[in-house]
């Protein structure tokens, strides 16, 4: 036996010696350098703490914000609004039939578009020399402000003195997907957080039972750019928009399955979260925190969401005012829901209404018919939304933003250089109209102007970044200082651009 | 050639540090060697190099003065003291040299000469610093009181501020244009630093123009001054240069408008027929921040934590104030008796949301203890308003939301609230046909009940 253990000992010693010989000084120095490099890199890449404060890789204690990423934070300066309702008309509405009145364009109706306008421009479908098309709507100056509104929006004139128009917004994208991404994330490419994600990341959310950023869609389709338009990009995913439905269950699978009691559910979630917290202590991955928070939020949402998403309990005159259709998916329902959500302290409500892409290729996509139907669908609800927020004292705390991803051409579309079946206009990003209303907005203002035919902005041109800077300003943020450290550099919603549009601020 | 001259000139701030280093080294060694006096040979050599590099510094300095548009008056002290320092280095070199050929110098005590060298280099360096950074660079961080004690003139940078009442009477040049130039242009276009030979601190300067001629024109498009400002930021000709404080859109617009009416140097805004919309953005705006305009002590973290633990949100309104916003949005069971929990932060509460809680009319006595309350929300509560008069002692109270409460008092009672601006009365029991405003229109009463009647086009489908 003794002999046997001797052999083992000798073998072990030999193994040890071989190992030491194999690890030369060169190996040792190399692995040291790698270790040091790793340490240095970890401090560069670990930029995922709220408001860009670096933190050590492994830590066993949680900050308040880590465990409760939606806890409310102080903005840079006194905020004008607490919530935002963003109404996006996906497909791009025609400013020339709604707000941007161009009487001169009537005169040129049917004439060839001058070559000078077409040079160097890119259009989605227009080929050759298109013909100009006069406004297909009638316009009147409305309210004390005397701002122009077309007869496609007969109700909207009642609140025209509450809103501020931006008549010369421009974008550099001419296809829906990139333009929508640009409009909502500040970049036409994927990967950036949306405005709603930035807002909830920066300010948190008041109601602990509801998500801070809710998305509602209508019009039968979701935006072309997909869910990235309400994504959280590189921000922790807890800040992404939560899509709720106005038809059927507001959130899919929100009810407990049969036979599962709420207590059992609670115990399950507590156990899962305990394990997740241990995981976080080990790896410090903020995504784990997002997951912990989402479990808890989902549990609380089971009670709160069906309540807030139920529009049947609203009084009849309110339902009539918005023109809601309970049980259906409609923009009107979503507007009423938006008010209810804001009333309950939701930070950012994003509405997408699909079906505004009026090329003139089909009847629904025609300027004189399809567009008119779409206008009717939004006219009453968006007017009611402003009135309802106003009478409840919520309009002082809320910002409403209305717009599309770009505008439409003063020329009639001639896809394939042929005459189209219906009257339509092509995508156009040089000049289009948006409006804002609510806290901090100069009532009845109109900023910017387009040329005689509405092709380009000639005065008060504002970019998508300027719109973002203004929204952040109203929420109390200095858009130049509101950054998030990612991949070694701080990122902003407005990138390196954006000027606050002071002309529409009260 | 000019390029090389300018390049060499720009090396001046680098090269000057060589003689400074040599002289300081020599002075230190001299101090160590004050007893033994064994290092004279070495010290002499160091002073020789100090002298050589000082001459180089003088040459590059002169080139920079030529190439960068400094006036002689602003550099003369630096220039002469620099030359004196260079020469003095050679004097020291000779004095310390092993073969002492300057007989009379031998008698001058080394310590005195060392002090002179030290004073010379300090004075020259300081003068140079003043040229690059400005004379007030060093004293800049000092408080104004110390500055004036030191005999410096304290200049308050005047921003262009006009009011609704005085804009027409403002002098178009002195009160409007010059303040813009002062804050954005004069730091590089003044008698001390005259970039492009252009002076913008006075009427005479702007009328005279710069090295490339007139900067003013009868039309803004033809004016160098205006065109430089509207060049893209990345254009080298853009003024003010990148990194300097830029004029605002409104200021540029104003300068253009002034140019378009023939850049008058006299008369008021009214006499020169400039339109009001050019000036409105300079009027001081009353931005309502949601809290009283005053400083307040910070609430203790402990008391905030205690209230939050009870389920009530306590949030700072912004990073720039200690005032707090308190919300019971997650605490619908909040009752009158819970109010005392808030008393530890009663000075800091500026916004209070008790909407949807169980409070009753007894809450008003308690609310009157919040001296800085500005925004109060009591919507969807049971209050009838029987004690609401007690709140009229709150001088900062701007807005009360009573929507959906049982409020049933006569709205005239609000006329005793001094600074109240808005009361929301939708879905309350008050007469919806009451006055729309009180206190000469300063207080707006919002009854709501908006209707959107059906119109024929609602049912037309195209």
Question: Care to describe what's here?
Answer:
The complex is a heterodimer of chains A (506) and B (462). Chain A has 506 residues and is of the alpha/beta class. Chain A has two domains: 2-61, no CATH class; 83-250 and 309-377 and 420-473 and 481-504, Alkaline Phosphatase, subunit A, CATH 3.40.720. Chain A is built from 13 helices and 17 strands. In chain A, the strands form five sheets. In chain A, strands 1, 4, 5, 6, 7, 8, 11, 12 and 15 form a nine-stranded mixed sheet that branches. In chain A, helix 8 packs antiparallel against helix 9 and helix 11 runs parallel beside helix 12. The longest helix of chain A is centred in the middle third of the chain and has 23 residues, at 286-308. Chain A starts with a helix and ends in a 14-residue tail after the last strand. Mean pLDDT of chain A is 88; it is low at 43-61. Chain B is an alpha/beta fold and 462 residues long. Chain B folds into three domains: 2-138; 167-282, no CATH class; 301-446, Ribonuclease Inhibitor (Leucine-rich repeat, LRR (right-handed beta-alpha superhelix), Alpha-Beta Horseshoe). Chain B has 13 helices and eight strands. Chain B has helices at residues 2-10, 12-15, 17-32, 40-67, 72-96, 110-133, 144-149, 172-184, 203-208, 224-230, 249-260, 301-309, 363-367; strands at residues 313-316, 324-327, 349-353, 375-377, 399-401, 422-424, 437-438, 443-446. Chain B has an eight-stranded mixed sheet. In chain B, helix 3 packs antiparallel against helix 6 (110-133).
Mean pLDDT of chain A: 88
Number of helices of chain B: 13
Number of domains of chain B: 3
CATH secondary-structure class of the largest domain in chain A: Alpha Beta
**How much of the residues of chain A is beta strand, in percent?**
15-25%
Helix-strand string of chain A: HHHEHHEEEHHEEHHHHEHEEEEEEEEHEE
Radius of gyration of chain B: 36 Å
Q: Name the poorly predicted regions of chain A.
A: 43-61
**Subunit organisation of the chains:** heterodimer
Count of domains of chain A: 2
CATH class (first level) name of the largest domain in chain B: Alpha Beta
Structural class of chain B: alpha/beta
Keywords (chain B): Membrane, Transmembrane, Transmembrane helix
Domain Cytochrome C Planctomycete-type (chain B): 185-243
Transmembrane segments (chain B): 12-32, 44-65, 77-96, 108-125
GO molecular function (chain B): electron transfer activity; heme binding
């Amino acid at each position: 036996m003794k002999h046997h253990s001797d052999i083992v000992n000798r073998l072990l010693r030999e193994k040890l010696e071989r190992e030491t010989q194999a690890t030369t000084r060169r190996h040792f120095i190399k692995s040291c350098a790698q270790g040091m490099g790793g340490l240095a890199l970890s401090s560069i890449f670990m930029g995922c703490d709220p408001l860009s404060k670096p933190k050590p890789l492994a830590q066993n204690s949680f900050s308040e914000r880590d465990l409760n990423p939606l806890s409310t934070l102080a903005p840079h300066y006194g905020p004008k609004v607490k919530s935002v309702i963003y109404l996006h008309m996906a497909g791009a509405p025609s400013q020339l039939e709604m707000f941007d009145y161009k009487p001169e364009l009537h005169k040129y109706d049917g004439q060839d578009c001058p070559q000078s306008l077409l040079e160097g421009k890119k259009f989605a479908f227009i080929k050759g020399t298109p013909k100009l098309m006069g406004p297909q709507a009638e316009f009147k100056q409305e309210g004390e402000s005397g701002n122009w509104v077309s007869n496609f929006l007969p109700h909207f004139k009642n609140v025209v003195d509450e809103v501020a128009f931006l008549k010369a917004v421009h974008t550099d994208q001419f296809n829906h997907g990139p333009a929508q991404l640009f409009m909502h994330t500040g970049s036409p490419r994927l990967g950036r957080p949306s405005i709603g994600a930035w807002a909830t990341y920066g300010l948190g959310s008041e109601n602990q039972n509801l998500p801070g950023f809710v998305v509602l869609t209508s019009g039968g389709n979701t935006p072309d750019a997909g869910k990235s338009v309400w994504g959280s990009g590189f921000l922790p995913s807890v800040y992404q928009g939560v899509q709720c439905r106005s038809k059927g269950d507001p959130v899919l699978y929100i009810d407990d399955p049969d036979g599962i009691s709420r207590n059992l559910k609670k115990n399950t979630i507590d156990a899962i979260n305990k394990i997740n917290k241990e995981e976080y202590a080990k790896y410090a991955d903020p995504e784990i925190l997002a997951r912990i928070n989402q479990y808890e939020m989902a549990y609380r949402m089971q009670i709160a969401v069906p309540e807030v998403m139920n529009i049947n309990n609203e009084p009849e005159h309110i339902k009539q005012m918005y023109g809601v259709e309970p049980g259906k998916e409609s923009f009107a329902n979503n507007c009423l829901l938006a008010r209810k959500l804001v009333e309950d302290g939701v930070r950012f409500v994003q509405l997408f209404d699909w079906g505004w892409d009026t090329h003139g290729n089909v009847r629904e996509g025609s300027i004189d018919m399809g567009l008119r139907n779409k206008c009717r669908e939004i006219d009453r609800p968006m007017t009611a939304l402003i009135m309802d927020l106003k009478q409840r004292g919520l309009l002082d705390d809320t910002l409403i933003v209305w717009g599309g991803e770009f505008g439409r051409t003063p020329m009639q579309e001639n896809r394939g250089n042929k005459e189209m079946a219906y009257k339509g206009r092509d995508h156009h990003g040089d000049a289009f109209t948006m409006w804002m209303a609510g806290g901090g907005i100069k009532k009845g203002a109109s900023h910017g102007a387009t040329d005689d035919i509405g092709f380009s902005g000639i005065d008060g041109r504002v970019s998508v970044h300027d719109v973002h800077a203004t929204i952040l300003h109203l929420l109390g943020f200095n858009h130049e200082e509101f950054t998030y450290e990612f991949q070694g550099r701080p990122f902003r919603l407005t990138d390196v651009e954006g000027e606050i549009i002071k002309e529409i601020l009260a | 050639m000019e390029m090389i001259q300018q390049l060499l000139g720009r090396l001046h701030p680098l090269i000057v540090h060589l003689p400074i280093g040599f002289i300081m080294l020599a002075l230190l060694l001299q101090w160590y060697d004050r007893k033994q006096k064994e290092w004279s040979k070495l010290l002499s050599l160091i002073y020789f190099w100090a002298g050589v590099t000082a001459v180089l510094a003088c040459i590059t300095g002169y080139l920079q003065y030529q190439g960068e548009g400094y006036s002689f008056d602003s550099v003369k002290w630096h220039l002469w003291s620099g030359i004196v320092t260079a020469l003095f280095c050679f004097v020291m070199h000779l004095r310390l040299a092993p073969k002492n050929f300057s007989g009379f110098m031998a008698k001058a005590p080394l310590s005195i000469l060392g002090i002179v060298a030290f004073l010379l280099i300090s004075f020259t360096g300081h003068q140079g610093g003043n040229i690059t950074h400005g004379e007030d660079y060093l004293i800049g961080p000092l408080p104004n009181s110390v500055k004036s004690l030191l005999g410096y003139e304290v200049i308050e940078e005047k921003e262009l501020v006009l009011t609704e009442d005085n804009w027409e009477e403002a002098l178009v040049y002195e009160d409007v244009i010059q303040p813009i130039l002062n804050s954005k242009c004069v730091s590089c276009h003044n008698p001390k630093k005259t970039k492009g030979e252009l002076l913008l601190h006075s009427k005479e300067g702007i009328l005279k123009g710069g090295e490339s001629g007139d900067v003013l024109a009868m039309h803004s498009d033809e004016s160098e001054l205006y065109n430089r400002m509207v060049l893209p930021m990345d254009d080298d000709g853009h003024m003010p240069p990148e990194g300097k404080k830029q004029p605002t859109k409104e200021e540029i617009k104003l300068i253009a408008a002034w140019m378009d009416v023939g850049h008058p140097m006299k008369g008021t805004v009214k006499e020169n027929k400039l339109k009001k919309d050019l000036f409105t953005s300079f009027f001081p705006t009353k931005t309502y921040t949601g809290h009283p305009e005053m400083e307040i002590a910070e609430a203790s973290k402990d008391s905030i934590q205690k209230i939050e633990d009870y389920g009530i949100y306590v949030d700072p309104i912004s990073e720039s104030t200690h005032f707090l916003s308190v919300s019971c949005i997650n605490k619908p069971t909040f009752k009158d008796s819970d109010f005392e929990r808030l008393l530890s932060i009663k000075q800091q509460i500026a916004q209070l949301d008790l909407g949807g809680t169980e409070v009753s009319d007894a809450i008003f006595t308690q609310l009157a203890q919040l001296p800085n309350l500005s925004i109060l929300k009591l919507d969807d509560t049971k209050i009838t308003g029987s004690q609401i008069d007690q709140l009229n002692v709150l001088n900062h109270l701007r807005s009360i939301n009573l929507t959906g409460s049982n409020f049933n008092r006569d709205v005239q009672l609000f006329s005793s609230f001094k600074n109240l601006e808005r009361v929301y009365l939708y879905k309350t029991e008050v007469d919806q046909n009451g006055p729309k405003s009180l206190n000469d229109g300063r207080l707006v009463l919002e009854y709501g009940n908006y209707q959107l009647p059906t119109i024929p086009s609602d049912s037309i489908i195209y």
